[in-house]
Specification:
Elements: H1 10-15, H2 26-34, E1 48-53, H3 57-69, H4 77-87, E2 89-93, H5 96-107, E3 128-129, E4 137-138, E5 141-142, H6 149-152, E6 182-185, E7 190-192, E8 200-202, H7 204-213, E9 218-224, H8 235-242, E10 247-253, E11 269-275, E12 282-288, E13 294-300
Parallel strand pairs: 1-2, 1-6, 2-3, 6-9, 10-12
Antiparallel strand pairs: 4-5, 7-8, 9-11, 10-11, 12-13
């Protein structure tokens, strides 16, 4: 392909940058969306939430599917876009910067109330919110996420990394008890706990547990695979997750670089599909070895 014709997706480029927060490539986001029943994208009633949006890639790719899927239901393009953006797509950003990035990806404007937004909102946030909150310290740790007070008790000019979605006992109140059909995302993986060296505690499990509390019809997230072996705050999560018959798919990548270029995540990563109304104990387990092939089996997890 001629260099003059090369027009890369900016979110693909962003996903290749090394960073503390792992950005999701569009291709990977679509693999996760492919697991969902595709009729979800043909209904004007389906509601989606990304509770840890960074680049806005999940919301953008969902919007593209809805725009195509609702063409018969809502023939007028602008009316269709307005309905999708106002009534079907919601996000909670993990930082102020990622809220701007996510709005830029979804609305084509960091200001959803501005003249360049694809659809006009009354507020700058639109449906992609960010609230700058602080940790709740108890005995040197945050009672919600376990972050170290020594490390994260900062002044207001620095990011607190107190992620809104997991810093509440009542996540349903974040969107006024709204019911979501699909919750999808790539949550932050860990926080320093103030120990020696690079000592850190996992927090991705807290996003999964919090999402389950909202009882969506479908939940899919990509997380480190270390939970499968337990340890370091993950034993209870592993036991409860593996005994949950609502897990229908676990797609495990032994090498995280198969998903995230240039990022090392020891133990690999996996994305899963959890279905609220599933009753069968059978789960599809896919072990992806890249060029060495894929192995698939169907069995109960416990």
């Amino acid at each position: 392909m001629s260099k003059l014709n090369y027009n890369p997706d900016v979110l693909s480029c962003l996903a290749n940058l090394s960073n503390d927060e792992v950005f999701t490539p569009p291709q990977l986001a679509n693999q996760m969306l492919d697991m969902l029943p595709q009729e979800l994208f043909r209904s004007p009633e389906t509601k989606f939430l990304d509770p840890c949006t960074k680049s806005g890639v999940f919301l953008r790719e969902i919007a593209k599917r809805l725009i195509a899927g609702l063409v018969d239901e809502i023939p007028d393009l602008q009316e269709r876009i307005d309905h999708i953006l106002h009534h079907q797509l919601y996000g909670i950003a993990i930082t102020r910067l990622t809220s701007l990035m996510s709005r830029r990806s979804l609305y084509c404007s960091k200001d959803a109330s501005g003249k360049y937004s694809l659809s006009h909102f009354d507020t700058e946030d639109g449906n992609v919110r960010f609230k700058d909150i602080r940790h709740t310290w108890q005995n040197g740790k945050c009672r919600y996420c376990g972050a170290s007070q020594e490390v994260y008790d900062r002044n207001d000019t620095l990011e607190s990394h107190a992620y809104e979605f997991i810093h509440t006992d009542k996540p349903n109140t974040l969107y006024n008890n709204m019911t979501f059909d699909v919750i999808i995302g790539n949550p932050p993986y860990q926080l320093s706990d103030g120990g020696n060296g690079a000592s850190a505690i996992p927090i991705y499990n807290k996003f999964v547990i919090q999402a389950m509390k909202l009882k969506p019809r479908y939940l899919t997230m990509i997380i480190p695979s270390r939970w499968m072996t337990g340890g370091r705050g993950l034993d209870d999560f592993r036991r409860e997750f593996l005994s949950d018959n609502r897990l229908s798919v676990i797609h495990d990548f032994k090498d995280a670089s198969l998903c995230f270029t240039g990022v090392e995540i020891k133990g690999g990563v996996n994305y899963f599909l959890w279905e609220r109304d599933k009753v069968s104990p059978i789960c599809v387990i896919i072990n992806d070895y890249g060029s060495d092939g894929i192995k698939e089996c169907r069995r109960p997890l416990m």
